[in-house]
Design brief:
The protein is of the alpha+beta class. It is about 30% helix and about 15% strand. The radius of gyration is 17 Å and the shape is globular.
């Protein structure tokens, strides 16, 4: 029988997440996340020593169009057997904050990790990390794709 979550009351703390987890910048959250791939390959990846096999530039796209382009690109690259691809999101514009709810700079950059954790991409992508400075730095991500089946 499935276990139901404890009832939530306004003002009570969310279990398993600290205030720091919710408010930490994207780079900090990704840096503290344990890699899901071979440690040696991950180290080479984050140091920019592996050249991406393909690139996708999402600059100037709407969120909807960018998500569709990402799905198509990752599916095509996984289908052809690519292991490492680069997705360029850009860093986002410096715009004044228009209202009471803060909007993070670089909406594509902040949405990409969420898209990668949802189907169908979660089945194709083993791990992802911000790109090395020579490949775009915080304005791009490396995606490490699963090997194709036999």
């Amino acid at each position: 029988r499935p276990r139901l979550p404890a009832p939530f009351r306004i003002g009570s703390a969310v279990s398993g997440l600290s205030r720091h987890d919710l408010l930490a910048p994207l780079e900090d959250r990704l840096a503290t996340r344990a890699p899901r791939m071979d440690r040696k390959q991950h180290r080479r990846l984050t140091r920019g020593r592996i050249e991406p096999e393909a690139r996708l530039d999402l600059h100037g796209m709407t969120l909807e169009r960018a998500q569709a382009a990402l799905r198509g690109f990752v599916s095509a690259q996984a289908g052809r057997g690519a292991r490492l691809v680069l997705v360029i999101t850009g860093k986002g514009r410096e715009e004044p904050d228009p209202g009471p709810i803060p909007v993070p700079r670089g909406r594509l950059r902040h949405e990409l990790p969420r898209w990668l954790e949802m189907p169908p991409l979660v089945a194709l992508v083993i791990d992802y990390a911000p790109a090395h400075r020579r490949h775009g730095g915080n304005g791009a991500y490396y995606l490490w794709l699963r090997r194709r089946g036999p």
